Amino acid sequence: MSLHLLVPPVRGVQETSLVRGQYEYWHYVCDGVDDRGWGCGYRTLQTVISWIVNNKKGSSEEPVPSIAEIQDILVRMEDKPGGFSGSREWIGSVEVALVLDQLFDVPGRIVHTRLGVLS
Predict the structure, then answer these.
(1) Which of 26, 95, 104, 117 could be a cystine partner for 91, CB 3.0 to 4.6 Å?
(2) Distance CA 15, CA 34 (A)
């Protein structure tokens, strides 16, 4: 479900930016895994991956990886130790970038900004 299609116009706002293309919104417990309190990074990554899968040519048949599969990817990349698989440990922006690069050859870059201005 592409939730951005359900967002009503906001009065007084001159510019609105929305996602273009179809995607699935992944949220806590959506696949039966109770990840409340620790799964937000994984769910964000799964939502981004669903956009890539649904909009990148040649990717539409690829499934969105589960939390367990994401953990295994990070272990295989040697970013995380073996005990990370099956854990309830969080992931952040760096891990999201690593997984996107590994799966889709989309390199990530963390950019620090000051007051919303690129430095």
Answers:
(1) 95
(2) 37
What residues does 114 pair with on adjacent strands?
117
Residue 35 half-sphere exposure, CB side, CA atoms within 13 Å? 24
For the segment 6-16, what is each residue's pLDDT rounded down to a tens digit? 777 778 887 77
How open is the CA angle 114-116-119, to the nearest 5 degrees?
50
Residues 6 or more apart whose CB falls under 8 angstroms from that of 61 comprise none
> How far is Cα 61 from Cα 41, in angstroms, rounded to an integer?
23
Q: Which stretches does DSSP call E strand in 33-73?
A: none
Model confidence pLDDT, tens digit, residues 81-113: 999 999 999 999 999 999 999 999 999 988 877
User: Considering the chain, what is the average pLDDT of its residues?
Assistant: 89
DSSP letter for each residue of 69-108:
HHHHHHHHTTSS-GGGTT------HHHHHHHHHHHH----
